[in-house]
Amino acid sequence: MGGEILAPEQAGPDDVVLAWEGEDIIAVRLPQLSDSLDHILAALERSHGMPLAALDRKTKQQVVRALEARGAFSVRHGVETVATALGVSRFTVYNYINYANEQRAKADGGDERSRQEN
């Protein structure tokens, strides 16, 4: 996630100080959520073995679904950041999100119908 380890005396108000038996041992500075998105995108590129923009449409849709599940689009400029990484427009990212939501609703509705029939 891109955290940074610090000496406890260097910790700021937003850092997490870890203590052992009442003594501060280490501090961790967590990245801003927007920085985490960059780390997630870089990890996705590594796992796919190529730039995200080089992926086919179906794989890009899978990436968007995974990012949505991880809260990537709650970050300010998240859609724009993802669109740039995928080499598509913001409109396309929104279409991928809407498509994923429609598929999920169909799957949930299909499960509900089969439960009602049984």
Number of strands: 3
How would you classify the helix and strand content by structural class?
alpha+beta
Low-pLDDT runs of 5+ residues are none
The gross shape turns out to be elongated
How many individual helices?
4
Strand content: 5-15%
Strand order of the largest sheet: 1-3-2
Number of domains: 2
Sketch the topology as an H/E string, one letter per element: EEEHHHH
Overall pLDDT score: 86
Calculate the terminal CA-CA distance, rounded to whole Å: 45 Å
Using the CA coordinates, give the radius of gyration: 20 Å
Largest sheet features? 3 strands, antiparallel
Helical content (DSSP H or I, runs of 4+) = 55-70%
Helix-strand layout with pairing:
Elements: E1 4-6, E2 16-20, E3 23-29, H1 33-48, H2 57-69, H3 78-86, H4 90-117
Antiparallel strand pairs: 1-3, 2-3
3D architecture notes:
This protein is of the alpha+beta class. It has 4 helices and 3 strands. 56% of the residues lie in helices and 13% in strands. A hairpin with a 2-residue loop joins strand 2 and strand 3.
What tags apply to this protein structure?
3 strands, 2 domains, 118 residues, alpha+beta
